Amino acid sequence: MNFKKVLVQSLLWRGLYFFTLLLVNVFLSRYLKAEGAGWVYYLSNIFSFSLIIISVCIEAGITYFASGKIIEPGKLVWFTLVWNFVVCLMVLLAVSIYIFFEPEAAAIPHNLYYYLGIFYLSGLFLTNCGTSLFYAENNFFLPNLLLTLWNVLLIIFIPKTQTAADLNAATATLTVYFLVFLLQGVSIIIAYVLKKKTFAFISLPTGAEAKKIFKYCSVVMLGNIVLFLVYRIDYLFVNISPVCTAADLGNYIQVSKLGQMLLIIPQIIGSVIFPRTASGLDRKELNTSLMIIARLFAQLYLIILLVVVFAGHWLFTWLFGETFNEMQLPFIILIPGIFCLSVVNLLSAYFAGKGKVGVNVKGAMLGLFVVVILDYFFVPVYGIIAAAAISTLGYAVHLAYPLYIFYKDYDIRLVDFFRWQRADYSWLKSLLANKKE
Fold it and tell me: What gap in Å lies between CA 210 and CA 221, rounded to an integer?
């Protein structure tokens, strides 16, 4: 299957999944309101950061070694299950430590933290590894169909005609929300095992193969830690800022989540580029396509910017409720930064597929340095507006390094990433033609 056909399949099925994820976000935010939604997404943010460390980013190694046919996929399945046991033990330990040192800080009953942590981290780990196995085989249909079906069930469950008085009143909804992550992960792993019949034998990677996995994943983990902090450390500064309320935090995280939703298409494309580059296929076509896609993104984000400028306030309060009335200006400021991250996602997938994850790490570290220093000085004074502006600047710095390496190594002109060309629409037309075939 050629690059364009794989890309169309990925856009179609992953796009469907992310559309239902957006609906989950909308209905959950309306039910919990800005303060409650801010707490849930802040907790999810802490869980996600913990998972990067606990999982050692095994899913990246699975994609790399399965796509390049370096390690037999059946071994990677069983390795995933073994490491998931480690993830669960680490979650129990981490929650116990948190409760011991912060006995009065819990916004919900202590025992619920154990359930939410296991549901979210174990489920997300299994989902990441399971989808990586499917994506390495260019199968985007089955895993995303399962993810979509679980999201639809969750959407049905979330109350639509009332709002929660507080988090304690919403514990049933919160429990189901986090439980769905586990159900998604388990169902994807089961689907892969049944499809590949890996249940017929148990086989783990050899010592040499395990060493290769951890060596590759440790570098990816470092990059993902830095990248995660570039994307989300601003939440921490907003949370502790004396000029920001809980509602401000909820508004800002919602702005950030919408920005991350705009990164869905780049991430979908990246999930095609990574295994494609790792396998050595379509190298010349990939280089050209990267620049075309970047130029098309620039035009897309200009349209989104105009929509938000003229209708953003109405649109956000209509979608999420009246408590999300401070989103428009931060979102306008953040859009140029989201464009930079879109191009970063393409280049990161490209370099990761070539085994050059160090390029991604160095670019992320430069961006993180800018974000942390400026957030420290300006967010306590100017709040979420400063946080949005600093994030955009940090994302631009983050883009500059991998873009320079791509320019230096592959003999292209930097202007070709940004100068619109009529031929780009022919490329897009041929992509849509692949969809119809």
Answer: 16
Q: Is the dihedral of CA 184, 189, 194, 195 positive or negative?
A: positive
8 Å CB contact between 36 and 164? yes
Q: How does DSSP assign 264-291, residue by residue? A: HHHHHHHHHHHHHHHHT-SHHHHHHHHH
Confidence of residue 279 (pLDDT cuts 50, 70, 90): low
Structure tokens of 222? 């470092």
Q: What are the C-alpha distances in Å from 2 to residues 6, 26, 157, 275?
A: 6, 36, 40, 13
Structural domain including 337 reads 3-436
128 phi, psi to nearest 5 deg? -60, -45
From the list 271, 219, 211, 210, the residue with the least C-alpha distance to 78 is 210
Neighbours of 377 (CB within 10 A): 11
Joined together, the tokens standing for residue 410 give 């592959």
Say whether pTM exceeds 0.70: yes
**CA atoms of 301 and 101, how far apart (whole Å):** 45
Query: What is the pLDDT at residue 9?
Result: 79
Q: How many domains does the chain have?
A: 1
